[in-house]
Amino acid sequence: MGELLVTQVIVNHIPHKLPESSPNIIPVQIYGLDGRKQRDIATIGNSSIESIKRLGVSISPVEFDLMTLALAVTAADTFVKRNRADDGWTREIELQVSLYEPSIWLEQKERLEEALHFLSGDLWNLEILSGGYKPPDPYPINSRHKTIDLEGRDCVCLFSGGLDSAIGAIDLITDRKSPLLISHSYKGDKSYQNYIAGKLEGEFSRFSVNANPISIGGQTELTMRTRSLNFLAFAALGASAVATVNHLENTQLFVPENGLISLNAPLTSRRIGSLSTRTTHPHFLRSMQEIFDAVGIKVLIHNPYQFKTKGEMLLECKNQITLDRVVSHTVSCSKWKRKRQQCGKCVPCIIRRSAIFALGITESTAYEHQNLLATMSDRGNRDDLFAIMIAINKLSSSNISAWISDSGPLTVDPVTKDLYKQVFQRGMREVDRFLQKEGLLR
């Protein structure tokens, strides 16, 4: 293998401080549109400042700088194409970003680089400089600008428009918690989020941010492995605002994700790394908690469904009436942004369909590949399905502890590790039963 091709991504809010673009240099203006009028540069976070102002309270530099970092990472992840890498996958990215108060984040440089490497599979080198965008002044409450009602909110919860996050919100509200729901307001996602939120009954508010990365040439990388860093950064901002308004010492951040997807153990040996996402893996969330603690972000990250399968989440959802109303209006597909339709055959879709089958309901979702038996005859579309069938067939003869550790380090605590093993096995059996029903396994 030859040397990796290094791509520099330079992020700044002042356009004249950005270099000219070249094959190996990508200039990105953050938090502004004026750069496009002057020269050919990429942009990100154009509407983010407006969203933050609507929180109605001042945001500390540490949380704001985290969002700047996260948006810069998203820019690099989106604009640096994987097909330029020597192996077609692992990119080497030098990311230069200016922060308002960089010193505290300079101390976390190595931790951040390690977390990003784990999350995306790339080699990251962060150059953190001073001179970044200042945290914006909030809109006053009761001004002509509509601000978010944070009074009485007691936690934050990620809210993507997916099935797991819908259950997370339903359960919190049913338990009389009052969450601030945190969303990416990407085109397409937003309509699902709005529909689900409209069916929730109880006290909650919503905070949405649109990263809106716009590249120079129009083409972007589709894998978006670092999206969860944005989610956590937006959540830290929201949690800071909730804590300020309600005088909380620490704010809980709920990350609703079933244990099987969270672990995301590789289904086959070739899926270690390139095809195994780690967006809510326990190791990544633990790494981010350590970074939060080190910089003084008083947020406690918790996945309440770490040891539940998706089917168990559905079966145990605390408001089945609301769940029934929203289940067909949630998105689980890893590929749906390409066609605005859930494919029905990717790993997340298969796990979703298996869970809904376990619940015993009929959903109205129109999958592109509804008939999985027919999909198995289609060489161009059966990779995920084939991989999950191979994994199920080797379940009884495999070292499960070693298998689930292939996607990342897990705790050495034997009790917790056994819980990881159990949820992985139960989740795979859930899929097994669905594929038997589909006529694919016996």
Description:
The protein is of the alpha/beta class and 442 residues long. It has a domain at 6-129. 41% of the residues lie in helices and 12% in strands. The chain has 18 helices and 10 strands. The strands form 2 sheets. The chain has a 5-stranded parallel sheet with strand order 3-2-1-4-5. Strand 6 (155-158), helix 6 (163-174) and strand 7 form a beta-alpha-beta unit. The longest helix is centred in the last third of the chain and has 24 residues, at 414-437. It is globular and about 65 Å long. The mean pLDDT is 91.
Question: What's the structural blueprint in terms of helices and strands?
Answer:
Blueprint: E1 6-12, E2 25-30, H1 35-38, E3 42-44, H2 48-53, H3 61-79, E4 92-98, H4 103-106, H5 109-120, E5 123-129, E6 155-158, H6 163-174, E7 179-184, H7 189-199, E8 205-209, H8 227-246, E9 251-254, H9 259-263, H10 282-295, E10 299-302, H11 310-316, H12 320-326, H13 336-339, H14 347-359, H15 372-375, H16 383-393, H17 400-405, H18 414-437
Parallel strand pairs: 1-2, 1-4, 2-3, 4-5, 6-7, 6-9, 7-8, 9-10
